[in-house]
Amino acid sequence: MSTMQSNTENTSKDTPTPATKPNKGGLEGIVAATTAISKVEGTAGRLIYRGYNIHDLARHTTFEEIMYLLWFDKLPNQTELTQLHSKLAAQRTVPTPVMEIIRLLPKDTDPMDVLRTAVSAWGALSTSGTPTQDQAIALTASLPPLLAAFQRLRNGKEPLESRPELGHAANYLYLLTGEEPKEEHVQGLNSYLVLLADHGMNASTFTGRVIASTGSDITSSVTGAIGALKGPLHGGAPSKVLDMLHAIAKAESPEVWLLDAITHGGRIMGFGHRVYKTTDPRAEELREMARVADPKAFKLSREVETTAIRLLEEEKPGRKLYTNVEFYSAALLSFVGLPGDLFTPTFAISRVSGWTAHILEQVNNNRLIRPEADYTGPDQAKFVPLNER
Amino acid sequence: MSTMQSNTENTSKDTPTPATKPNKGGLEGIVAATTAISKVEGTAGRLIYRGYNIHDLARHTTFEEIMYLLWFDKLPNQTELTQLHSKLAAQRTVPTPVMEIIRLLPKDTDPMDVLRTAVSAWGALSTSGTPTQDQAIALTASLPPLLAAFQRLRNGKEPLESRPELGHAANYLYLLTGEEPKEEHVQGLNSYLVLLADHGMNASTFTGRVIASTGSDITSSVTGAIGALKGPLHGGAPSKVLDMLHAIAKAESPEVWLLDAITHGGRIMGFGHRVYKTTDPRAEELREMARVADPKAFKLSREVETTAIRLLEEEKPGRKLYTNVEFYSAALLSFVGLPGDLFTPTFAISRVSGWTAHILEQVNNNRLIRPEADYTGPDQAKFVPLNER
């Protein structure tokens, strides 16, 4: 800065309170909030929702049971589950102005941008004030119809009405295709929605909590969280795993392709996580589903997985880069019939249950989340008016 | 949780790395990022943008000079300023689908919800990829036309075309009213826009940086920031200052009204700040402008200010509750002719310059912002299938 110099008029003797400075940046290792919703144990590769192990939940529950668990802090009995289903089914509509807004967006719009805009418009019409459980239900119910409407419209088809007798996963597949969803697809998608529903203080959940901490509304929080999930360092990259697998299928061998990528600084998709230092437990569940769903595609995925882990350990010893949730998500969502650019929006359809649970938890015991910054610019610059610059 | 009990199958010996736990919550005193954009010294009541004292800037610069300073790290010379003006003027349009979207929103929609939705739609059509300075310019230019269009439409008037010869503040006033803006209004609004442009790691700026840290786009970041600014604990309360002043004007005296509010736990609007422990330097500038703009209204505001500070010190000694930026913002924006529900959106019209500067800074030296949570729920709950619950 050319004009910087001492300026006694502006001299300040203010000494700010010394602030704790994280060593690694990115708030790694810093506790931003307390939560009773989920716990990620990175070294053990363990994930629990309100105490329940993710493996039990992935194999034995529906996504609706998980919503109930996250919002109401217990697994529902049959009566409670039926009541929740009724409330969700009643909210599976797209308000007319929101449908018009979706129609106005060009067909080549990024579906995450569509979802962000449609959710924001939905909330402008539907919600205000302090977030409530009923708002969490309504918002979670609304995402599949909003996204499926765009998917239909960009393919030249009219959006469909939801079918109240179908569960959340089955209705989403029906809204996309207009066909009776296959049971194996419903089960696969349901397990995916269960596995991705919550994951500690991840970046999109944290975004939602920061926004909620200002006293803002549930839609503002979820709109922000959708924007964060879009980022490729968070939720925005699963379709790139598929692209990578297609490229590897054409190569001489997985080993040759992966070694070339590692040697020349190319990105290997679907490996490594800020918290997990072993295989992501969600990836273990998705791997088993992918094995059953499509044995041929699985063979390649599995070979890429084992080869990549071995090569990464040889090339970057100690980094502990293992398969993350994105790796087998791509295989599963592809099996279910989703196009690649709906993978991340479908992640949002699951995670909105966790986002809203965290928003309700934040609001229930709130303090504004407002960190500090370490200022590295000049302290005193001498002001020069425009006509003297 | 009724079903909680020991479950050896799920036992984990994982011990997470001990994390630093802030004493006060809300990340108070925790450094989330380094920045060279602005510095807030709470004890001295000092604010600088890239080294320049806020008092010099408020009195001697246009908002366009501040945009340049925040984005390009220097105050512009006349040539640079003219170039920036041309770029801004070229982007002061509302794309047709976005205008249609604004028309679809009901007239009683919260203007912050309109802004959040319109900006999201604008970005869905206009931006993608890694944030750039040109995107920051385009987005900052677009906010006044988007908001003014809604203000016109909800009052039964057609939106207007921007006038390229007008500066940012003057064009905004013109778009709202259709009249030649008064010089005193332009100057007042310009100073407001300068004063509110950036403020360290406040909650909306932090939201924007968290979203940007995932590799997401500039619109996703700004949409999230708008949602955070909406919260009454951040930017969403200045019109409530006006409501309070109107109520006090009808009371026996400011002292009686304020004492009653303090004694009975009522909220006194416009006092106290997480960082400032003395009068906010922006409030000092706004106070002087309010004094000149409307001497009669100022007399009441000033009496409320001095009385409230005295009473708050008597009732809550040591809390150091002083006038914050909201207190005189209300007076100034009211003088300029804005309705109360456009105060916070107008705050966004200023702060988007700082948000985008921070987004560019984050992207330039990025690490995913992903804190941890302190899990307080049960560690092991025994899973019981639905038909046994």
Describe the structure.
2 copies of one chain form a homodimer. Chain A is mainly alpha-helical and 389 residues long. The first copy, chain A, folds into 2 domains: 48-234 and 352-364, Orthogonal Bundle (Citrate Synthase, domain 1), CATH 1.10.580.10; 238-335, Cytochrome p450-Terp, domain 2, CATH 1.10.230.10. Helices cover 55% and strands 5% of the residues of chain A. The first copy, chain A, has helices spanning 54-60, 63-72, 78-90, 96-104, 111-126, 133-154, 168-177, 183-195, 203-213, 218-229, 238-250, 254-263, 281-293, 295-315, 325-336, 343-364; strands spanning 31-35, 38-41, 46-49, 52-53, 372-375. In chain A, strands 2-3-4 form a 3-stranded antiparallel sheet. In chain A, helix 3 packs across helix 6 (133-154), helix 6 (133-154) packs parallel to helix 7 and helix 8 (183-195) packs across helix 16 (343-364). The radius of gyration of chain A is 23 Å and the shape is globular. The two termini of chain A are 13 Å apart. At the A-B interface, strand 1, strand 2, strand 4, helix 1 and helix 4 of A face strand 1, strand 2, strand 4, helix 1 and helix 4 of B.
Structure described in brief:
The structure is a homodimer of 389-residue chains. Chain A contains 16 helices and five strands.
